[in-house]
Write a structure and sequence with these properties.
binds iron/sulfur cluster, 34% helix, 16% strand, TIM Barrel, binds FE(8)-S(7) cluster, globular, alpha/beta, 10 helices, 302 residues
Length: 302
């Protein structure tokens, strides 16, 4: 019998805990922190800690080389049978560290080909790497898109670094916006499942998120994840220090509901760290710190 397009997509997401709400009860993901540098500045970021996804201030991810990361992945895949996805999500931007990021993916594709590869990026450099992404069979890419209007972008991004030049103000926001739109198109053309993460920042982009949702849907994104800004002052971000508040759960839900008529919304995101290990909402990263996993033998069946 024929499989419909829908069924095919269901198969592609069935074991991905972020792309499938059902899967997150049964399947786990791990992140490896191999990407320290970033090519843009978000006002909600604190470089001392992790990327936008960080929810526990004050705990820095342990940076790994690609070889260390691959060793770690193979150890963990042997110990946690529900482990299906390897994500690279920071602590900087994976595509601002392309050598480390792709070497890590390459090693895993070679040694544990049944682990799904997942990449999370701000999109500034993605159009340049779409062929490598496709070649490595990376089927899940998350773009963090917080605006589709550079006038709003200037309030979120003080600068970007692009083609060895630093840009600020509206020029920076315009370039980032254009590259993010190109990224969406490139992923669509390559038939790679694209999730968009948007950080909801009250008074800055909250009213604008339905427009972001409309544009990303039109450009073929598969899933939209609107996440709350974490603005606790101890988090130490520009927004936090300037008294910017995060949305209340009610405000967050209202915006998610406003967008949900149009496309699938992710509502089970747990805002993970760049070295998270386990089921969503579970953090087993401390079981696999460098001093521990380097002494463990990969049990994974090669
Ligand atoms: Fe990691 Fe992100 Fe891949 Fe998931 S996390 S790179 S898509 S495997 Fe998931 Fe964590 Fe939310 Fe990210 S719960 S922060 S959405
Ligand atoms: Fe920080 Fe991530 Fe933004 Fe880079 S893309 S500045 S690491 S939040």
């Amino acid at each position: 019998s024929e499989t419909t397009v829908d069924e095919k997509i269901q198969q592609r997401i069935a074991k991905h805990p972020c792309y499938s709400e059902e899967a997150h009860h049964h399947y786990a993901r791990m992140h490896v922190a191999v990407a320290p540098a970033c090519n843009i500045q978000c006002n909600y970021c604190n470089r001392k800690y992790d990327c936008a996804n960080e929810s526990r201030p004050g705990v820095v991810s342990e940076l790994l080389t690609p070889e260390e990361a691959a060793h770690k992945v193979l150890v963990i895949a042997g110990k946690i049978p529900q482990m299906t996805v390897l994500g690279i999500a920071g602590p900087g931007d994976p595509l601002a560290n392309p050598k480390h990021t792709f070497r890590t993916f390459e090693l895993i594709a070679e040694k544990a080909p049944d682990i799904k590869l997942c990449l999370s990026t701000n999109g500034l450099m993605l159009p340049d790497y779409i062929d490598q992404i496709k070649q490595l069979n990376i089927d899940h890419v998350t773009l963090t898109i917080n605006m589709v209007d550079p006038e709003i972008g200037v309030k979120i991004y003080p600068w970007i670094r692009y083609n060895r030049k630093r840009y600020t103000g509206i020029e920076a926001a315009k370039i980032l916006h254009e590259r993010q739109m190109e990224s969406l198109e490139a992923l669509k053309a390559a038939d790679i499942l694209c999730k968009v993460n948007s950080v909801m920042i009250p008074g800055i982009n909250d009213q604008h998120l339905p427009e972001v949702n409309r544009v990303i849907r039109e450009k073929g994104a598969f899933l939209h994840n609107i996440m709350p800004l974490i603005s606790a002052p101890e988090h130490g971000t520009y927004f936090g220090l300037n008294g910017q508040r995060g949305p209340t759960p009610k405000e967050l839900k209202a915006v998610q509901d406003q967008c949900s008529g149009n496309m699938k919304m992710m509502r089970h995101c747990r805002q993970c760290r760049a070295d998270a290990v386990g089921l969503l909402g579970e953090d087993r990263s401390q079981e696999f710190t460098k001093d521990k996993f380097l002494d463990m033998t990969p049990e994974y069946n090669l």
